[in-house]
Specification:
Layout (H helix, E strand, L loop, with lengths): L4 E4 L5 H9 L3 E4 L6 H8 L4 E4 L7 H5 L6 E4 L9 H6 L4 E2 L6 H16 L2 H9 L17 E5 L3 H12 L3 E5 L11 E2 L3 H7 L2 E4 L13 H6 L5 E4 L8 H9 L5 E4 L23 E3 L8 H21 L20 E8 L4 H12 L3 E8 L3 E8 L1 H12 L4 E6 L2
Parallel strand pairs: 1-2, 1-3, 3-4, 4-5, 6-7, 6-9, 7-8, 9-10, 10-11, 11-12
Antiparallel strand pairs: 13-15, 13-16, 14-15
The structure holds 1,4-dihydronicotinamide adenine dinucleotide.
């Protein structure tokens, strides 16, 4: 098999090219996000596509990508790809959901101190010549209570960092989570809001988290407490927050995500929070660091390597996840098929007809497709793959080594 050809678009971090080239793959890079028509021309020459958030992989693109093996989103979101069409064509899609976890956690820590010392407002005033030297309302974060809502990857990182600065940590999560260090789990959101000097939100965007923090929850917070939201813009009811800040019930807030965000740096940003005292507004930069871009490059390149070389789909967002160690002295055959009754029987029929010795077989399915990984004696692999490929319900068959 010739080495897969990989195209990385939208200025993906150079480290991805470096890692994939070291693996013997041919890698080309583009700095822009190709249009649909451009992409259709381009994919004719590539087996693997790496994109970021601006390149749309539509059904039309996929229909014209005869030999596309996999797609990698070098970012968190994957809604720029038609995931179900990709799945039905046997194309796993990977992303990098946790490469920027630490970056978000560090921003939250910085914001706690910034809010406690009113850094945003004092900085703005100093820039226009106003000297506001006063200790009134300025506090250390040491000894205060931080309430973390959503104790997942980011929430738990914030927990560890905050404790090391002397904060007490409480958290609330809908799933039972192991408290790290001395953190204490709360039984309800209300309980957390009542005791926290800082409330930081780290929940996903779901119907349950929509408007999770509204007038009632803000009223339940301690007077002068601070709110931080670097999760998703839908989680906080912004007009209610403005009201709580203006009435001086809430001491300040730091908001990184908004219900409506500009689509690019060229668009104007408008929010009712602009101009309100002790409010830090940032343009969704929680995860935007050079280290995170580097880590994303490594993470998706590694997913490509594992899929192309050993058939691992672990972490794929639209595909049954299979992760098997390499079996020495055998060849590995991959088959994606429509998940209909009797397919496995047909495949096994071909195996016994060929007299092939199966050293290992693993099947993972979802409601639409089945992903079968088989380790067979090398002398049988190619011919068997050819026969399996001919089955009417086979979508894609490949020998990886
Ligand atoms: P995660 O999936 O690791 O953790 C989320 C946690 O929230 C889970 O433990 C889950 O059980 C919990 N949860 C879900 N619904 C809940 C509810 N109703 N009440 C309480 N807990 C609930 O996610 P991760 O990686 O920690 O990300 C958290 C958020 O941060 C996501 O919304 C993500 O989109 C956002 N994010 C923002 C970035 C930025 O640039 N500002 C960058 C990266 C992520």
């Amino acid at each position: 098999m010739t080495a897969p050809r990989i195209l990385l678009v939208e200025n993906i971090h150079e480290v991805a090219k470096q890692k994939l080239s070291e693996e013997g793959f041919h890698v080309d890079m583009l700095s822009h996000a190709p249009t649909e028509d451009e992409l259709i021309q381009l994919v004719a020459n590539y087996d693997v596509l790496g994109i970021r958030s601006k390149t749309e992989i539509t059904k039309k693109v996929l229909d014209n990508s005869k030999h596309l093996l996999t797609i990698g989103c070098f970012c968190i979101g994957t809604n720029q790809v038609d995931l179900s069409v990709a799945r039905e064509k046997g194309i796993p899609v990977f992303n990098a959901p946790h490469s920027n976890t630490r970056s978000v956690a560090e921003l939250v820590i910085a914001e706690m101190i910034a809010l406690s010392r009113q850094l945003g407002d004092r900085n703005t005033k100093a820039h226009v010549g106003e000297w506001v030297k006063s200790a009134v309302g300025s506090k250390e974060v040491r000894g205060k209570t931080l309430g973390i809502v959503g104790y997942g990857h980011i929430g738990s990182q914030v927990s560890v960092l905050a404790e090391s600065m002397g904060l007490k940590v409480v958290f609330f999560d809908v799933i039972k989570k192991l408290p790290l260090g001395n953190a204490v789990a709360m039984h309800s959101l209300e309980e957390l809001l009542k005791v926290s000097d800082f409330v930081t939100l780290h929940v996903p965007e779901t119907p349950e988290t929509k408007d999770m923090i509204g007038a009632k929850e803000l009223a339940a917070m301690k007077k002068d407490a601070h709110l931080i939201n670097a999760s998703r813009g839908t989680v906080v009811v912004i007009p209610a927050l403005v009201e709580a800040l203006k009435s001086k019930h809430i001491g300040g807030c730091a908001i990184d995500v908004f219900p409506e965000e500009p689509a690019s740096n060229k668009e104007k940003f408008v929010s009712p929070l602009q101009g309100v005292a002790n409010v830090i507004l940032t343009p969704h930069i929680g995860g935007s660091t050079e280290e995170a871009q580097y880590a994303i490059g490594i993470e998706v390149a590694e997913s490509f390597r594992r899929y192309l070389k050993i058939g691992s789909t672990s972490g794929a967002v639209n595909f049954p996840n299979v992760d098997l160690p390499v079996k020495q002295g055998t060849s590995r055959l991959l088959n994606v098929h429509r998940n209909e009754p009797g397919v496995l029987g047909e495949i096994n029929g071909l195996i016994s007809k060929a007299g092939a010795n199966i050293e290992g077989q693993y099947l993972s399915t979802d409601e639409r497709i089945g992903y079968l990984v088989m380790d067979v004696h090398s002398s049988h692999a190619k011919a068997l793959a050819g026969e399996i490929e001919k089955l009417s319900r086979s979508i894609r068959t490949r020998v990886v080594y």
